[in-house]
Write a structure and sequence with these properties.
Elements: E1 3-9, E2 11-12, E3 15-16, E4 18-23, E5 32-42, E6 46-51, E7 60-71, E8 73-74, E9 77-78, E10 80-85
Parallel strand pairs: 1-5, 4-6, 5-7, 6-10
Antiparallel strand pairs: 2-3, 8-9
């Protein structure tokens, strides 16, 4: 067990507190595994494995022996656990056909 408690909380200087791995290009985001007794994500913070372009989002695995809490907001931004892929298209011409 890495730690009895992992906390990711709040916003500091306009930036959300976060834990994760992200890819902004063609590469895949990495995997994130959290092993702990308790995980707290609060006050607008987030945990993610995301891709903002062509790469794949990574796996997000949480092993908590006691509890996982994802609570609260900050400036209307919710606290979240997010394994995801974000695809950005600067123009409608670049969007793939469905």
């Amino acid at each position: 067990m890495a730690s009895d408690r992992v906390e990711v909380t709040g916003i500091n200087n306009g930036l959300r507190s976060s834990l994760g791995s992200e890819s902004g290009g063609k590469g895949d985001a990495g995997e994130v595994t959290i092993e702990t007794g308790q995980l707290l994500v609060s006050d607008g913070a987030f945990v993610s494995t995301s891709s903002a372009n062509e790469g794949a989002g990574g796996n997000l695995r949480v092993f908590a022996s006691d509890r996982v809490e994802v609570i609260g907001t900050n400036d209307e931004l919710p606290s979240v656990l997010v394994p995801s892929v974000w695809v950005l298209y600067p123009t409608a011409k670049e969007m793939p056909e469905r």
